[in-house]
Amino acid sequence: MRGAPESRVRDALESGDSLPGTAGFAGELDGALVRDVLGRQPIFSERGDHTTWSFDHRNLSNPVAVPPGHKRDEAGLEQVWSLPDPPATADREEALETVQIAVLDSTREVEADGLAVAFSGGVDSAVVAAGVPDAPCYVAGFEGSHDIDAAHAAAEAMGRELRVVELTHDELREAIPEVVAALGRTNPMDVQIVLPLYLLAERVADDGYDRLAVGQGADELFGGYAKVAKAPGDHRVEAETIRGAAREMIRTLPDQLERDLLTLRAAGVEPVAPLLHDRVVKAALPLPDELLVDGDRRKVALREASREVLPESVVEADKKAVQYGTYASRELDRLARQAGYKRRMDNHVERYIRSLVE
């Protein structure tokens, strides 16, 4: 069992508690394969054979993932946990205090031994870094990218050591086959997102660290996406409220976490995601619209919770999606065009990715 003691998972099965106080789990328990409700630990079995399984799909000939919140055994597949859907909290101060306690407790309990922090300068990674003050912070990006500039500014404001992993075209090109093998995917969005993460993690591993703390989950749990802020007017979400749109984003976490975790493990580090601890999820789910988004300000509750440990400039720092903030998307498109895959072609970037893999 990865991520939690077997006894904790067994109790969760018996009680139906979907958030039993863990940071996610997956493994075999009493002859069944189980995976937590948010899919924070991926697990795979051979199609039609739950007794042959692995945490890495590459170890199987015909892998199929156990869905989040499910149990797979000789009887088949059964959903055993569902994500809670509590009503919105009416007491603003109580909600903010609950989030602050959950976030700060979860970040402060992270063990610092062998740990580095993926640090982009936004509030997500900064509050994680604040919990482990002795861990080095790493940022990846092409020269002049937003993430490198933002990380420098935040690290200076926080008085933290920053190590820059400056990306190059050669490194991007060479990493693509490794990333595709780890993911089992070639779609450009996934590859663009994880390429800088993979190269950063490789550097972290080369420097002697075997664990990487990340700010994963903050955008989904706390309303960090533009399409959530624009709900219900954004065609990319179905919900009629900001809360509903945020919940839609939370439901995308299992696929994203599988992608990111497999990538980091392939690079040689084990991810640590304190903002995805059950206590943080529990604190975030009841947040009302105005504590997710207030005008142009997103992740309101998380920003307020971070004021105790972060400078004002970092609390309110803007954050770009990693593929844009590092220039990974732009430069991967440039490489594709240089290789003859022009934008007028359908799926020109994916064609380029496939050419490198083949």
TrEMBL record:
The record's GO molecular-function terms, alphabetically, read: ATP binding
Mark out the compositionally biased spans (Basic and acidic residues).
Answer: 1-13
Specify whether Manganese is a keyword of the entry.
no
Q: Name one Pfam family in it.
A: Asn_synthase
**Annotated Asparagine synthetase domain residues:** 115-232, 244-340
Q: Where is this region: Disordered?
A: 1-24
Q: Which InterPro entries match?
A: Asn_synthase (IPR001962), Asn_Synthetase (IPR050795), Rossmann-like_a/b/a_fold (IPR014729)
* Gene3D superfamilies membership: HUPs (3.40.50.620)
Q: Which UniProt keywords apply?
A: ATP-binding, Nucleotide-binding
What's the protein called, per UniProt? Asparagine synthase C-terminal domain-containing protein
Q: Which organism is it from?
A: Haloferax namakaokahaiae
| Lineage, top ranks | Archaea, Methanobacteriati, Methanobacteriota, Stenosarchaea group, Halobacteria
